[in-house]
Write a structure and sequence with these properties.
Layout (H helix, E strand, L loop, with lengths): L1 H13 L2 H5 L3 H12 L8 E4 L2 E4 L2 H10 L3 E9 L5 E4 L1 H4 L4 E6 L2 E11 L4 E5 L20 E6 L11 E9 L9 E4 L11 E4 L4 E8 L2 H8 L7 E5 H11 L15 H11 E7 L1
Antiparallel strand pairs: 1-2, 3-4, 3-14, 4-7, 5-6, 5-14, 6-7, 8-9, 8-11, 9-10, 10-13, 11-12, 12-13
Length: 277
């Protein structure tokens, strides 16, 4: 009661008592409900020895990022010592934040360029590239052995990465798409953006997709097996040249390596790509 009397006295002093007296009990209860349910929508305040002030923009951004959730993961590989990393465009499309995890170290990545038509993207991740991929310098042929390296099904399978092997089935994708290579090496969700390497350990493509088995089965009555695709490395080099990224030149002659040696080298420049929304 004393609080109400004090409030009325102040209002009378500044000339607002008549308006207060005209409020009905219902209006007063409604106003109380409004203030009880009020939530902060203005910029956050930071409090210091000199009183309150607007929080620093970086603090606002940090607070917003803490609210983001991991939506999906893919794979990628470093192509320059400056930290340029190649992945698929669909891996990072619609992400509010992209992070790259390499050697158990995580860092926020900046999207440098995307090519939705080729399903490619280049990210910049400073201070993470100790090793980089080397592209092949010859034409691939159907029947040649290939290795897929990446980080599929994160949270279900190992976080250390996994590999599968197969061969090149064809030098074109669906409807004679010359930008793709068809391979038999199995891929899973999370492999997208990872490197496709040949028997010398040279990158010849970027893993991008697999044939939709259920859709084909509905149409043909048959379940297709081992029909997967990668974007040809030629398109990756063209994109890197366009934006001025200096990638490693292939050696004049590649050494013949055993598969375990190739796998060990590939994971030195491969990484997990995380999408937060």
């Amino acid at each position: 009661m004393w609080a109400r009397m004090g409030l009325m006295a102040v209002l009378c002093f500044i000339g607002f008592a008549p308006a207060f007296d005209k409020l009905s009990a219902q209006q007063i209860n409604s106003a109380r409900g409004t203030t009880d349910n009020w939530k902060l929508t203005s910029p956050r305040l930071a409090f210091g020895p000199l009183g309150a002030r607007l929080a620093h923009p970086h603090a606002e951004a940090s607070h917003a990022l803490r609210l983001l959730k991991l939506a999906s993961t893919g794979s990628g590989f470093f192509v320059s010592y400056e930290g340029d990393l190649v992945t698929d465009n669909h891996v990072i499309a619609g992400c509010r934040e992209v992070r790259v995890v390499h050697n158990e170290k995580s860092n926020t990545a900046r999207v440098v360029v995307t090519d939705a038509a080729a399903d490619l993207a280049v990210l910049r991740v400073p201070d993470l590239a100790g090793d980089v991929a080397v592209f092949g310098n010859r034409f691939e042929r159907p029947g040649e052995a290939v290795i897929v390296a990446g980080y599929p099904l994160q949270g279900l399978l190992t976080s250390k990465g996994s590999v599968t092997t197969g061969i090149i089935s064809a030098l074109a994708g669906p409807k004679e798409d010359k930008n793709l290579i068809q391979i038999t090496a199995p891929i899973q969700p999370g492999n997208s953006g990872g490197p496709l390497v040949d028997a010398h350990g040279a990158v010849i493509g970027v893993v991008t997709s697999k044939l939709n088995s259920l859709r084909v089965a509905r149409t043909t009555g048959l379940i297709p097996e081992n029909i997967n695709f990668a974007v040809k490395a030629e398109l990756v080099r063209e994109l890197l040249d366009k934006i001025g990224v200096r990638y490693a030149a292939p050696p004049s002659e590649f050494k013949q390596l055993a598969i375990p040696e190739i796998v060990e080298n590939v994971f030195k420049f491969s990484a997990i790509v995380q999408c937060f929304r």
